[in-house]
Design a protein that fits this description.
By secondary structure, the chain is mostly helical. Helices cover 79% and strands 0% of the residues.
């Protein structure tokens, strides 16, 4: 949470468990990660604390990633995304986490038109907020969309933007992902 001094003890514990679930996912401890996300979902359900919405959105963002990208459970990801919908849905103040969820679901369900819309919305958000790491991720998502629809020149431009931004902020993971995707793109070009 951005305003850590303003959260209560219970919210801090939930935030810590959310970080744990994400780390379990990223380190390949998938069964434990799934259990942690499920338990967090139960604990967040009906939570009426000051930061409940922020915690639920972050849980949803990470759980949708886990379900769609890792488990391949698009229907489960859609259920979580629907749960996270709120009064800020669809307006210009829509939380960034909802855009991330939409991007993951669209990408993994093969809806490249929706994936492009979500990736462009993420890109606009990142550029407006000055978040260079998120801008790099959004460019990478656009690169994947363009590659999927055969726009290889546009894909390379997007991946190059992602790589440049990742390097500018020292994001080694983002740099590795960009280089990997550029390598796949070169392989695809050699096949045609």
């Amino acid at each position: 949470l951005d305003r850590w001094w303003d959260i209560d003890h219970h919210e801090a514990l939930l935030s810590r468990r959310l970080q744990r679930a994400d780390l379990l996912c990223r380190t390949g401890r998938l069964q434990e990660a799934g259990q942690e996300f499920e338990e967090l979902g139960r604990r967040l359900s009906g939570l009426l604390s000051k930061h409940a919405r922020v915690l639920e959105l972050r849980w949803g963002r990470d759980y949708v990633y886990f379900l769609s990208e890792i488990q391949g459970d698009i229907d489960g990801a859609r259920v979580v995304r629907a749960r996270c919908a709120g009064p800020d849905e669809g307006n210009h103040q829509q939380p960034h986490e909802l855009l991330v969820m939409d991007d993951s679901i669209a990408m993994r369900s093969g809806d490249m038109q929706a994936a492009e819309v979500a990736a462009r919305a993420r890109l606009a958000y990142a550029q407006d907020s000055g978040d260079l790491v998120e801008e790099s991720v959004a460019w990478n998502s656009l690169g994947i969309v363009f590659s999927s629809i055969g726009e290889l020149a546009e894909s390379e431009i997007a991946y190059d933007h992602s790589l440049r931004l990742s390097r500018s902020v020292g994001d080694l993971r983002g740099e590795a992902i960009s280089l990997h995707n550029l390598g796949i793109l070169q392989f695809d070009r050699a096949q045609h």
